[in-house]
Amino acid sequence: MSLYVVISPTARADGIYPIRGYAGPSGRLDVVARAYLAVLESNAVLAALLMSGALSPRLLIAPASCRDRVRSERSFMVEASRALRGRPSCFIVEDGGVEALIFTLKKFKPRILLSERGRDVSLHLDEVCSSTPAFIAGSHVDPPRELLERLERSLGGFIRVSVGPLSLHTDHVFLLLSALRAHSSPT
Ligand SMILES: C[S@@+](CC[C@H](N)C(=O)[O-])C[C@H]1O[C@@H](n2cnc3c(N)ncnc32)[C@H](O)[C@@H]1O
């Protein structure tokens, strides 16, 4: 099982946004939705740290069991809004988001931070294709440096991996990684 994490400094943690025209009003939670949909593995978990709005950061978790139900960007946005507003949902919300993220990340290893400035992915294929990795990426903007430093202190560091010199969208990075993992899995 793998964990894909998106850290979004701008996504609203209260789930209050319209279901039509949600991109701006949600603080670009649509970027997280597309990152979720890009992951090919059926047993992957997605966790998103939503850091904006009046509430403290919260952790939105999309378990693997939601994959059959949430198959479009819009259904992700509906399900996320329900979970964040305390309504029944297959997603889970943890308050105390940063600590919840650290707790979740501790269950996965190795922990791979995706960064344009990391070491080339070809040098880390064993770690990328291992059984329980965590992949951590920014949203449409990078994660705040202080947050990464805090996570690193709590978790004892990351492997920093790049999938190339260009700055890509988060969903493209996740698609590439999960395709590499699918390719390496025994048939
Ligand atoms: C759209 S980028 C964020 C902003 C981008 N770093 C910039 O300054 O324009 C989204 C996230 O995808 C990941 N990412 C983007 N390009 C990457 C690459 N070439 N290799 C590894 N990760 C990458 C990083 O985690 C980044 O925070």
TrEMBL record:
Return any one Pfam family short name: Methyltrn_RNA_2
Record bears the keyword Transferase: yes
Q: Name one GO molecular function term.
A: tRNA methyltransferase activity
Enzyme Commission identifier(s): 2.1.1.257
Q: Which domain of life is it from?
A: Archaea
Q: Enumerate the UniProt keywords alphabetically.
A: Cytoplasm, Methyltransferase, S-adenosyl-L-methionine, Transferase, tRNA processing
Q: Name one GO cellular component term.
A: cytoplasm
Q: Which residues make up the binding site for S-adenosyl-L-methionine?
A: 114, 138
Q: Which GO terms describe its biological process?
A: tRNA methylation
Top enzyme class of this protein?
transferase
The protein's location, in the record's own words, is: Cytoplasm
Q: Membrane-crossing residues?
A: none
Catalysed reaction(s) here are: pseudouridine(54) in tRNA + S-adenosyl-L-methionine = N(1)-methylpseudouridine(54) in tRNA + S-adenosyl-L-homocysteine + H(+)
Q: Its family?
A: Belongs to the methyltransferase superfamily. TrmY family.
The record describes its quaternary structure and partners as: Homodimer.
Q: What is this protein called?
A: tRNA (pseudouridine(54)-N(1))-methyltransferase
- Gene label: trmY
